[in-house]
Amino acid sequence: MAIQLPRVRHRVRTGLATLLALLVLAALGSASATAATSTPRPATAVAATTPGVVGTLSTSSSSVLEGQPVTFDYSLPASAVVSNNWIGIYSNPGCGPVSQVEDCASTAYNWVTNGSGTSSFSTSGLAPGSYIAYFLYANGYTWLAQPVPFTVTAAPGTLSVQNAVVTQGQSLSFSYSLPAAKVLSNNWIGLYSNPGNGPVDQVYVGASTTYNWVADASGTSTFSTAHLAPGKYVAYLLYDNGYTWLAAPVTFTVQPAAPTGTLTAEESTVQQGQQITFDYGIPAGQVNSENWVGLYANPGCGPVDQVSVCGSTTYNWVTNASGSTTFSTGSLAPGNYIAYFLYDNGYTWLAKPVTFTVTAVPPVAPPTFKAAFGTGLGDPQGIAVDAKNDVWVTDSGRNRYQEYSGTGRLLHSFSRSGVGRLNGPTAITLDRAGNVYVADTGDNRVVEYTAKGAFVRQYTTGGGTALSRPQGVAVDTAGDLFVGDTGNSRVLEFGPTGAYLKSLTSGLGRPEGLSLDASGDVYVADSGLDDAGPDQVIELSPSGTVLDRVGGSTSSSLGGLSNPGDVALDASGHLFVTDPDFSMAMEFNTDGPYLNEFGAVGSGELANAMAIAVAPDGQIYVADSGNGRVVEFTPASAG
User: Fold this and answer.
1) Cα–Cα distance measured from residue 141 to residue 139, given in angstroms and rounded to the nearest whole number
2) Bridge-partner residues for 511, per DSSP?
3) Which of 7, 186, 255, 516 is deepest in the core (most CB within 10 A)?
4) Pairing of β 148-153 and β 63-65
5) Is the distance from CB of 272 to CB of 334 less than 8 angstroms?
6) Degrees (nearest 5) of the Cα angle 221, 222, 225?
7) Distance of CA 348 to the CA centre of its chain
8) In Å, how far are 37, 58, 214 from 83, measured between CA atoms?
9) pLDDT by residue (tens digit) across 147-186?
10) Of the candidates 431, 432, 436, 460, which has an alpha carbon nearest to the alpha carbon of residue 448?
11) Distance between CA atoms of 113 and 139, rounded to whole angstroms?
């Protein structure tokens, strides 16, 4: 709106002398009066402040239909052009700068900054009736052109809403009527968000939220509000599948329904990197493939009023009537958060929100470099430590495996021909009897040897399917062998005599290194599926249920993994993971929180770190493939 100048009212005191003077002036006649009132002001003052009626203002539509824009053509001499000239619309009669002074506020206005052009106004906010447009100077009320009257005529029909406020899910009904001449089979009522949407100026600006055809001269049209997010809306009755108004628009409000579902957090406080799980439930009628749970910073974010106010920090789809959904908190900074259970990819609450807190992980010093050994290794890919603290290493570049003492002295080198010959070996492990199992990756099998290196058996199929580039092996206390069948996205279990037992597949992409804990849970270094899946360590129960995930959905500075190669556990429950892409190893708690990283710099700097193992005495050994060596680290607790 143009800035409104203050009204100035002067109190006039009229005494006897003044009255006599007025009578004398009246007797002088109209000629004298005209001469007195037309005396010009100084030319400089006129040019500076009041150019007068020097321009033109016109409209080609002296009568417009309600909702249609009205357009004015204008022109000015250059001397009258200033940046805050303006055109104001006023009701007529009874308002506007009739005497070139402010009388009331304009109904609408536009700035006019050029010497000529057009200026258009929406009439959507103007009630049917008579109006007048003034072309005014310098944000004031001096006329630049003769005013132009025009009329806004009412749309031919009527539209009304039976309930201007409805609860989401309730029906919404509109009554309408039209003259017979306007009845068509493709007249329609469209609902739009309000303000700022819909055919405000009787032209298309965006798709309606929903619509109904209305083919009769009068009647009612009913809409479901189940899919309308809470908020304000406007309904338009429109002509012939187009956008010409048949009636004045009607506004209404959808208020949120009380949520009928439930959402609960299994933990109210978690350390950064731990998973947090939410249990949920909703009635069958609200199940939707795009229902979702979103996590937001708290306070100040999230759909507090069931409308979007900012993006979620992370989210999961929840497609069932009940169940649980789990999030990693590795990418969440320590602080307070709130979880919302929301409907159909929108912001309508399905349950009351749940708050939770992410706390920082207490600092843990990383392992420190102790020694390096293995001169002559071509490409160490797998590593294991036996009960005597001897270190076993596969040398993929020379198709062999070797045994070293814990101090790095070479004890034995095993290189076999015939059926026991290796082709690009990777992972290695030992059972309690000292038998050695090697992932013979190049030949798509696992080979078992005695402690002295004699061939025992090979594992080539599982569940009727041939192994494909296996890169992980581990043996439990019962003597069962677990194989990371990388190319088939599964972990296989075989009995002590080589019989196939079962296949674990839940959540796996490209399983590589394996490790087992005392309870038989399997930890899998999973590098995702075709580099598109999550890069993380997955904990599986002996039956194959996913129990936990470590290192997924985080940045590298917070323990984010990129194609993890191997995983190992120590006696305290800490998890060690090699990351060849980052050429380092990382330490986690087994329930998720990232603790530290090591081997990235200094004497123990790693290059393409492939495999990792923890000795009974707690020492950590890494197959440093890029440097052709084994690197030994001492944990901080032992330093």
Assistant:
1) 7
2) 526
3) 516
4) parallel
5) yes
6) 145
7) 16
8) 31, 20, 48
9) 999 999 999 999 999 999 999 888 999 999 999 999 999 9
10) 436
11) 11
